[in-house]
Design goal:
The chain is α+β, with helices and mostly antiparallel strands and 495 residues long. It folds into two domains: 164 residues, no CATH class; 226 residues, no CATH class. 33% of the residues lie in helices and 19% in strands. The chain contains 14 helices and 15 strands. The protein has a seven-stranded mixed barrel. Strands 12-13-11-14-15 form a five-stranded antiparallel beta sheet. It is globular and about 70 Å long. The N and C termini lie far apart (52 Å).
Amino acid sequence: MSYKYIVGLSFLFAFGASYVQAASSSLPKTKEEVLNAGLPVVEITTVNGELPTCEHISGKAWGISVTSITNATKVPGRLTISTKKDGVIYDSGDYEQDMSGMTFKIRGNTSALVDKKPYKIKLQKKGDLLCRGDKKYKNKNWLLIHDYKYRAILGFKVNELMGMQWTPAHEYVNVMINGKYQGLYLLLESVERDVDCRINVSKSGYLFEYDAYWWKEDLKENGYYVKIPTYLSGKMYYTFKYPDTDDMTDDQKEYFIEMITAVEASVKDGTYQDYIDISSFASWVLAHDILGTADGTGSNIFLTKYDNTKESKVMMANLWDFDSILQKTKEWSTSHKRFYFPHLFSKNPNNAFIKAYRNRWDDVSPIIFDELNSYLDAFAKSKEADALNTSVGWDDELWKWESKTATVQDLMTLYKSKFDNRKAWLADAISTFPSSQTKGDVNGDTYVDKQDIMVLTDIIKKKRLIYQLSRVDVNGDKKVNVADIVELIKLIRKK
């Protein structure tokens, strides 16, 4: 990533360097000027003008030294969201603990080491910062991140098209802090358990991360990590999004250690089909291959186990890290070299995963690149794109990036060309993989079981045909409806 790193890093961390205002007459000086760009404006006003700070810390992952942050301070204040058309559309109110207002802090790892900081926002009262008009979207936790060259929205689109468990809702906004313009951000939902609108796991389930930054002192002191055998890949540990470690019982920890140790052993010895949902794993790594990422398994590998029963398998949750998309041209994404995937792609002793990966490619390849091109075209022609071109110019000037960001239109044209090349390379590279077309195997994991019923139900409910018609049309009538679910149940019962 071509970011300009902080000069005098330690000094800047100590004095809250995330907040600057360049001396330039072309930058907006009033909220009205920022609103005129056309994007929503998130305005944060802190108590006593205080600003969040953090310190940097170094540790090791994959045997190399990596840097992150620690001791991030939470700053209280008020948050409003406004549009030029409707005025104020959200107001947290003044800060009153557990009642109104919000706190925000610097978040991230390497992304937090540049001048422009990403933030985590915690509302004191649940709200929907994307203002969608439905109470089910209300939550306390939200993020503001820097989406360099609009890569994150491309990643989230592929995540959605691949049918992953959840895709975070998001919107571009301009941000002002204590009356001063602070740049263009992507406002989005954070990764967490929320059965109504985020990741759905039961109260006895787990939402966890295969984490390169487990060594951070604030994580270790609060028991966020679990030590497990390290024979798979790298000096990595598991940290928790759910359950909250403050509330985790010894029984829950013991269950997780026993469960994840068995999962890792199964991945190594080829018995993984009894422990992991291989369709979700295949979809996740194929999504990274479509995106051509260079560091998709660097961190931010989120997994779920719906509950603590044997029937519940470990699943990949959603993609997250998109800083390096389209850096790989004629080679696999780096995901093939890390995490469980070197073992899963091994043909010995079990090639079920390779078949599932090929099946997912057969499902999505006729559709997904056309969908991506349509999305890129629509985005380039949108009013939002014009607003972004204005806002990113301010952002470039304010934060003095080493290279200026091209227009939305030019970037989308470039991405279309890169995706066309990526499709051609993947088609050739995957052509030698085996596939399985067993009747009733809707999700392509080489099994015919209740997981196929769940996937088929989701396809019918959401009216999405990312899967091949031949795979989801179980009864062969060239339609996809409840009749296929009935036929699938019959097949499973016969089996």
